[in-house]
Amino acid sequence: MNVSLRVWRQKGPGTQGCFETHEARDLNPDMSFLEMLDVVNERLAVEGKDPIAFDHDCREGICGMCSCVINGEPHGPEFKVATCQTYMRSFRDGDTITIEPFRSRAFPVLRDLVVNRSSFDRIIQAGGFVSVPTGSAPDGNAIPVSKEIADLAMDAAACIGCGACVAACKNGSAMLFVAAKVSQLNILPQGKPEKDRRVLRMVQAMDAEGFGNCSNTYACEAACPKGISVNFIARMNRDYAVALLKNKPA
Amino acid sequence: MNLLVNLFRSSLGRKLVMGATGAGLFGFVVIHMIGNLQVFAGAEVLNQYAILLRTSEELLWGFRLALLAMVGLHLYCAITLTLDNRRARPAGYQDKRPLGATIASRTMMVSGVVVAAFIVFHILHFTTRDIFTDYKAWTIELHGREGHDVYRMVVHGFSIPWVSAAYIVGVGLLCAHLSHGVQSFFQSLGLVSTGYQPIIRAAGVAAALIIFLGMAAVPVSILLKWVS
Ligand code: HEM
Ligand code: FES
């Protein structure tokens, strides 16, 4: 199959970018989207042109490195699937595919389709951990956790931190990511001691990075390759309200 | 102090204020609708109710100030949050998709601003009586108490097609606002637990629809001369 790409090209951070058109020819429909870009890049390299820069790592939907907004949808057309697991059979022969970087003030473009998502790391550093005294490893089942709670925490922990929620949100809000990262710990007994401080600090860090505010449109949930539920956002809102009422310094 | 700073500075804090004030205004709208529907019980019932509302000047002003404060806080948060949101995406997309977001949810600021304009018009029309100044002289006496002839005012107002049309558009947009706003309130205050989301979303849309029908019934009935 053949497709035509309208792809965002930008030399570096802060420089002017523009769309370029590239033809991708003789593709196997069972190639992944990133393999299709590899094929285009090989040709560009042979022609002595700059290859299209894009992020990727595991290529199996678990690391959260791949990104891109494909035809207006972060991670492309398939539901609950990352770009690396999107296959060319999801497109039609002859299609024109628009590929853009994730757009957010907090995710500045580094080059072409690559954006800097270290704002997410700084949010994690603000409270996305549990503090434990070092020493010998604790006994495995010393703290009982019910199956329901373990499952719920696991659902939150499925977040791969790719940033598709920010890319999809009309406000560029990072609420789904932060809610998942707050909840995965706040739900569990190990996370309880730092529950209030965690939510206050992580929300403060989120605001400081310049993400937008949630207006509950739920585009994030629709775009999330892991299907993280917006219920975690409600949960974080509740944790935040409770922490505010206790009125302790963060 | 910490509490207040966080409530009015942070993203989540302002959403809490937004939700709480929105819920207060929603409560007012429901009571207002029930009050309005008394027009179908006739002039005496409606005018009696209008006189009852003005029993105590202090109480009346208490309510008015509370409503004004709620609208003010709601508007303050709406504006500051929206400005933040604009700044959060300096460069937009070529190809934009709503991805499941409803039209009502994407146009809250538009519906809100039109509702604000409508509220101003509505107060000038029926409360201060400055749109049709004749209303100022339409007084009545019921059971020994003096009051305004609200029934006559309402029938006169809504007999004019453009007034009714403006009113229906106003409440229509208010209800579009609420069709997203009701579930948004539960979400912003964290009052949703797993599994209840679809019920709350449906109930929000149903509540908005009921309010629209209840509010629009009055001008429609007057235009069709069912009430005169
Ligand atoms: C004065 C003009 C108004 C403006 C400019 C305005 C604007 C807004 C905006 C921008 C939102 C946030 C949307 C979101 O985050 O999802 C919102 C939410 C809301 N509004 Fe309004 N609004 C106005 C009047 C009203 C009125 C009169 C009512 C009720 C009768 C109301 C009820 C609500 C509710 C319940 C919410 C949901 C709160 C939340 O997200 O937690 N609004 N409004
Ligand atoms: S490359 Fe790892 S999730 Fe797509």
> How many separate structural domains of chain B?
1
Could you estimate the helical fraction of the residues of chain A in percent? Answer: 25-40%
Largest sheet of chain B: 2 strands, antiparallel
pLDDT averaged residue by residue of chain B: 94
CATH class division of the largest domain in chain A: Mainly Alpha
Looking at the structure, the CATH topology of the largest domain in chain A is: Fumarate Reductase Iron-sulfur Protein, Chain B, domain 2
The CATH H-level homologous superfamily of the largest domain in chain A: Alpha-helical ferredoxin
Strand order of the largest sheet of chain B: 1-2
Radius of gyration of chain B: 20 Å
- How is the biggest beta sheet of chain A arranged? 5 strands, mixed
- List the uncertain runs of chain A: none
Instruction: Name the average pLDDT of chain A.
Output: 95
Helix content of chain B: over 70%
Q: Would you tell me the structural class of the helices and strands of chain B?
A: mainly alpha
Q: Measure the end-to-end span of chain A.
A: 56 Å
Structural class of chain A: alpha+beta
Instruction: Tell me the overall shape of chain B.
Output: globular
Uncertain spans of chain B = none
- By DSSP, the count of extended strands of chain A is 7
CATH 2nd-level architecture of the largest domain in chain A: Orthogonal Bundle
Can you put this structure into words, describing what you see?
The complex is a heterodimer of chains A (250) and B (228). Chain A has 250 residues and is an alpha+beta fold. Chain A contains 8 helices and 7 strands, in the order E-E-H-E-E-E-E-E-H-H-H-H-H-H-H. The longest helix of chain A is centred in the C-terminal third of the chain and has 16 residues. The mean pLDDT of chain A is 95. With 228 residues, chain B is mainly alpha-helical. In chain B, a hairpin with a 2-residue loop joins strand 1 and strand 2. The mean pLDDT of chain B is 94. Chains A and B meet through helix 6, helix 7 and helix 8 of A and helix 1, helix 2, helix 4 and helix 8 of B. Bound molecules: protoporphyrin IX containing FE and FE2/S2 (inorganic) cluster. FE2/S2 (inorganic) cluster (FES) binds next to loops of chain A.
